Amino acid sequence: MLDNLIQDKDFTNLMKKNIQELIVLFFEKEQNFGILCKIEDVSFNPPLPEEISAEFRPLTLFFLAGYTFESARIEENYLMFEAGFGSENFGSVVSVPLLSILQIIIDETPVFINLAIETEKTQEVKTEEVDEEGLENSMATFLSNPENSKFIK
């Protein structure tokens, strides 16, 4: 039952919206925060040197404070910010898909936990199911009205 919910398109859209609204609130309140995210979904521009990227764990925590916080923004379902990495402070723009953010943290306390899982396969299956159900419901509603019988031959 939980598996169906966390992969449901409506649930994932709600979680994405909640993540975005919470981050925007932190921007407005000038509240520094951290994000725990899946590093496999994160992109860096320019790409990080191998010796730096090899140090990341599958779940990586980024703290947005100082210049990193000031440069942060949300664009097209991504949290984007500039950060420096390694001893040489290698600069890169970090792009994190909102649904790849698993936790939002303030002062070492998680204030938001994201359970949603967005997969292409799940979205396609769900869309087909909704379309078939919607078509059947629409046709049943159409046929239940006697006025519409003149349109059917």
Order of helices and strands: HHEEHEHEEEEEH
Could you list the spans in which at least 5 consecutive residues all have pLDDT below 50?
121-128
Query: How would a textbook summarize the main sheet?
Result: 4 strands, antiparallel
**What is the CATH-assigned architecture?**
Roll
Describe the protein's topology.
Layout: H1 2-6, H2 9-29, E1 33-38, E2 43-45, H3 50-53, E3 59-64, H4 66-71, E4 73-75, E5 78-85, E6 90-97, E7 101-106, E8 109-113, H5 120-144
Antiparallel strand pairs: 1-3, 1-7, 2-6, 4-5, 5-6, 7-8
Care to give the gist of this entry?
The protein has 153 residues and is an alpha+beta fold.
Describe the fold and architecture.
The chain is an alpha+beta fold and 153 residues long. It has five helices and eight strands; from the N terminus they run ααββαβαβββββα. It has one domain: SH3 type barrels, CATH 2.30.30.220. Strands 3-1-7-8 form a four-stranded antiparallel sheet. The longest helix has 25 residues. It is globular and about 60 Å long. The termini are far apart.
